[in-house]
Amino acid sequence: MEIYKLRTFVAVAREGHLTRASELLNLSQPALSAHIKSLEEELGVLLFDRTPKGMQLTHAGRLLLNQAESALAAASDLLAQARSLRDEICGAVVLGTITDTPSLRLGDFLCRMTASYPKLSLQLRQGISGTVVQGIKNRELDAGYILGQNEDSAIATIGLKKIKLYVAAPAGWKDRVETADWPQIAALPWIITPPLCSFHRITEELFEKHNVKPNTMIAADQEITLRGLVAAGVGLSMLREDQALAAEQAGEAVLWRQGECETLLSFLYLRERENEPIITAMAQVIKHVWNSAGSD
């Protein structure tokens, strides 16, 4: 039995759709269908019911899913053990990053990794939280940082620091926002991040909590762009605490304190890879970097 067939089975079961599983595994839908058909023939049972709403596990599929996941984890452990026996922590690691380097303590992390594991090549790939999660799931990334809660059980999370967020408005709008309530704030022009960005979900949840919808004018996916557009008088946006306070001090923005909220900066990797030497090494170093630096 081929491991790739089990990986396809688990991915389709988790996603419930061939389309999403195809994107996750970076394979065509016909290829996934062929994997599933071949596995069903090999096992002698149907694993899925094909419905207009997607792929639904059969009774046999539900019973076999846990064993398939265990088999994948066991295969990963076997490879990890083999590498550790060869004493090899080497090769290329691709790390997903978000926001600015100092906020992630990335310099300290990279220095410690390269000093401890000189045969390791580290590559950084800048993105937003949603693309980092996707990259880890489809194995384009080995690990990465996100802002916000990770709700995917297939991904392991190391919480690093709680981050405050503020609603920032152009400095010239001070009189408009100082005494504004949620409906009035929502009615002003807003700069919103894309759905895959953690700020998007956080902002959306805040508005839903107060039963209002933002007057979205522009979408931008980089924090420096958000701050620049606020400073230019385009509209309001959610900014990380250090960016918000710096913009306020520079006279670029006024902060609407009723919109203050909190999220979590985390380091993620695929749970089934947690025993691989490279993943173990990164987890140990990231914990050391953040524990030794304290919470500031």
UniProtKB/TrEMBL annotation:
Q: What is this protein called?
A: Transcriptional regulator, LysR family
Q: What is the lineage of its organism?
A: Bacteria, Pseudomonadati, Thermodesulfobacteriota, Desulfuromonadia, Geobacterales
Keywords annotated in UniProt: DNA-binding, Transcription, Transcription regulation
Molecular function GO terms recorded? DNA-binding transcription factor activity; transcription cis-regulatory region binding
- InterPro entries hit by this protein: LysR_HTH_N, LysR_subst-bd, WH-like_DNA-bd_sf, WH_DNA-bd_sf
Q: Which Pfam families match?
A: HTH_1, LysR_substrate
Q: Which domain of life is it from?
A: Bacteria
The HTH lysR-type domain covers which part of the protein?
Answer: 1-58
Name the PANTHER family on file: HTH-TYPE TRANSCRIPTIONAL REGULATOR, HTH-TYPE TRANSCRIPTIONAL REGULATOR GLTR
Record organism: Geotalea uraniireducens (strain Rf4)
Keyword Transcription appears in the UniProt entry = yes
Q: Which residues cross the membrane?
A: none
Sequence similarity: Belongs to the LysR transcriptional regulatory family.
